[in-house]
Amino acid sequence: MKRIAAFMVLVALSFAVSMPVQARTTTSEDTRQSRSAAKQQQKMNKQASKKQRKAMKKAAKAQRKAQKASRHAG
């Protein structure tokens, strides 16, 4: 009877100890995933910024060309 009780206590303790380890693993995975998501978001922002700079440069070039054409036309 004492052996069964001791075994039950041992099982309960091992279960209680294993829970925080599992929680820590989940936390580290969450941290890794959030870091990965942040990196992906940063990459998307950088690409969008590059496209915006390119569009603004193209618009400025078109504006200069239009001004030049209007000076020569008049």
Characteristics:
74 residues; 1 helix; 0% strand
If you had to describe this structure to a student in words, what would you say it looks like?
- It contains 1 helix and no strands.
- With 74 residues, it is mostly helical.
- It has a domain at 38-74.
- The mean pLDDT is 85.
Morphology: rod-shaped
Number of strands: 0
Which structural class best describes the helix and strand composition?
Answer: mainly alpha
Percentage of residues in helical conformation: over 70%
Low-confidence stretches: none
Question: Could you outline the blueprint of secondary structure elements for this entry?
Answer:
Blueprint: H1 2-73
What would you say about this model in short?
With 74 residues, the chain is an all-alpha fold.
